[in-house]
């Protein structure tokens, strides 16, 4: 299904008067700020959609088909991301996961994606599951495994993913390892680190000159005693040893409870080793919930550090880091969930752009704790949805993406085209 521009324009015309009224109020409220510059930054900012997030999600206990019309092929997944991008103007890239989505014809896929205004974001390897036809199991780890042949299999898989990405025009590889141990004594930590580093070095050496490697970390699950890349410090250690093309990737759900993620972000940026983000939200662990649905203030604080740190280094907000959603949609229409996540991320980014940096720095230098808190919370408590909607309007997208999605009955049309029992590849 395609969403036509005239359908978006008709929708926007119906909501334009209300939108302009809200935007005028914001412009008056923030007359001391260059809002045109902020809006342009919002227009430029793009958040990649992972191919595995377009179907119904699941838990460790089950997966329930609740929507229908799930994309069955890479082509249909590109179509779905194209739908999202048409609606919000901010989802201009798709991130593929191999072997859940193995390209058969790279040139054809590039042409299809280009037709929707999409590019291919970072490629994702998979050594946390045993793959059909593979001679070796990852039950006791992949890149860390004590068995050299198993490590070799995992290395070769990652190198194949790089080759697939080169053909598609991607420029980054994300490596997430489930490697670790479930019980004390199961693993020699030092040897596991050395094996993993040696394996990553082989993969790193296969990267094209203009590529990046993102080393993702996770504190727990599926291994519950130790993980071989368990926190940002371990990821930073690997990335530092690998070289300038390697950096740390932060998934918001991959931390122990109450971790100060905004401080982690600030320090990684300071060291030039922050590669990108996987956005989601959580209440208890790696819940993979809709971004901003549980801890919107934390999301804002993270973006506050991102904007401050990137500006301090003269970085391009839209291009110098990788931005992607990594969520699971257990009880919602996946496309509606993704639209909500993108909206929340854009709002947090807009809030961070409007923080009075000069006043905040002065408050910090004077140890004026109350003033610093007021500056941050004044911006966070401001309703900036009209600013984000204006960026969508200028990108020829919808003022209210979910409303238009429902007005056009997109899910019903996808079910009609694909069937009620289709299941997308992935977890």
Outline the structure in words.
With 427 residues, the protein is α/β, with parallel strands linked by helices. Helices cover 48% and strands 9% of the residues. The protein is built from 15 helices and 11 strands. The strands form 3 sheets. It has a 6-stranded parallel β-sheet. It has a 3-stranded parallel β-sheet with strand order 1-2-3, covered by helices on one side. It has a two-stranded antiparallel ribbon with strand order 6-8. Helix 5 (148-168) packs parallel to helix 6 (189-205). The chain is globular and about 65 Å long. The mean pLDDT is 96.
In short:
The chain is α/β, with parallel strands linked by helices. It is built from 15 helices and 11 strands. Helix 9 crosses helix 10.
Strand fraction band? 5-15%
Q: Count of helices?
A: 15
Cα(first) to Cα(last) distance is 25 Å
Indicate the percent of residues in helices.
Answer: 40-55%
**Net shape:** globular
Can you write the helix and strand succession as a string? HHEHEHEEHEEHEEHEHEHEHHHHHH
**What is the spatial order of strands in the main beta sheet?**
4-5-7-9-10-11
Mean pLDDT: 96
Strand segment tally: 11
Major sheet, described briefly? 6 strands, parallel
Low-confidence stretches: none
Secondary structural class? alpha/beta
Radius of gyration: 22 Å
What labels describe this entry?
three-stranded parallel β-sheet; 11 strands; single chain; 15 helices; 427 residues
Describe the secondary-structure layout.
Elements: H1 5-29, H2 35-44, E1 49-50, H3 74-88, E2 93-95, H4 106-115, E3 119-120, E4 123-124, H5 148-168, E5 172-175, E6 180-181, H6 189-205, E7 212-216, E8 226-227, H7 232-242, E9 246-251, H8 261-270, E10 274-279, H9 296-312, E11 322-325, H10 334-353, H11 357-365, H12 369-380, H13 385-394, H14 401-407, H15 410-418
Parallel strand pairs: 1-2, 2-3, 4-5, 5-7, 7-9, 9-10, 10-11
Antiparallel strand pairs: 6-8
Helix pairs in contact: 1-13, 2-13, 3-10, 5-6, 8-9, 9-10, 11-12
């Amino acid at each position: 299904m395609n969403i036509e521009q005239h359908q978006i324009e008709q929708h926007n015309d119906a909501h334009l008067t209300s939108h302009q009224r809200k935007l005028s109020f914001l412009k008056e409220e923030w007359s001391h700020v260059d809002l045109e510059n902020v809006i342009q930054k919002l227009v430029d900012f793009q958040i990649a959609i992972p191919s595995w997030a377009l179907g119904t999600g699941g838990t460790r206990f089950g997966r329930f088909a609740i929507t229908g019309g799930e994309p069955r092929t890479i082509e249909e997944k590109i179509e779905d991301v194209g739908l999202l991008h048409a609606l919000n103007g901010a989802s201009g890239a798709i991130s593929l996961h191999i072997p859940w989505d193995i390209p058969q014809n790279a040139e054809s896929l590039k042409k299809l994606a280009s037709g929707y205004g999409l590019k291919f974001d970072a490629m994702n390897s998979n050594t946390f599951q045993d793959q059909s036809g593979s001679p070796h199991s990852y039950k006791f780890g992949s890149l860390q495994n004590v068995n050299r042949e198993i490590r070799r299999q995992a290395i070769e898989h990652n190198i194949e993913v790089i080759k697939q990405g080169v053909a598609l025009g991607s420029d980054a590889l994300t490596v997430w390892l489930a490697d670790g141990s479930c019980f004390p004594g199961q693993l020699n930590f030092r040897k596991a680190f050395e094996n993993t580093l040696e394996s990553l070095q082989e993969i790193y050496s296969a990267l094209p000159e203009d590529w990046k490697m993102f080393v993702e970390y996770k504190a727990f699950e599926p291994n519950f005693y130790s993980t071989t890349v368990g926190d940002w410090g371990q990821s930073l250690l690997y990335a530092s040893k690998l070289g300038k093309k390697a950096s740390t990737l932060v998934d918001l759900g991959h931390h122990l409870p109450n971790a100060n993620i905004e401080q982690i972000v600030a320090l990684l940026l300071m060291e030039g080793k922050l590669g990108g983000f996987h956005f989601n939200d959580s209440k208890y662990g790696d819940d993979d919930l809709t971004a901003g649905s549980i801890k919107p203030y934390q999301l804002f604080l993270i973006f506050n550090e991102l904007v401050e740190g990137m500006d301090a280094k003269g970085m391009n907000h839209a291009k110098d880091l990788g931005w992607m959603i990594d969520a699971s949609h257990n009880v919602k229409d996946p496309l509606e969930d993704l639209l909500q996540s993108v909206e929340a991320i854009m709002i947090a980014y807009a809030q961070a752009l409007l923080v009075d940096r000069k006043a905040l720095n002065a408050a910090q230098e004077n140890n004026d704790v109350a003033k610093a808190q007021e500056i941050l919370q004044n911006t966070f408590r401001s309703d900036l949805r009209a600013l984000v909607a204006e960026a969508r309007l200028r990108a020829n997208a919808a003022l209210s993406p979910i409303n238009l999605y429902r007005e056009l009955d997109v899910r019903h049309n996808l079910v009609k085209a694909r069937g009620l029992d289709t299941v997308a590849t992935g977890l």
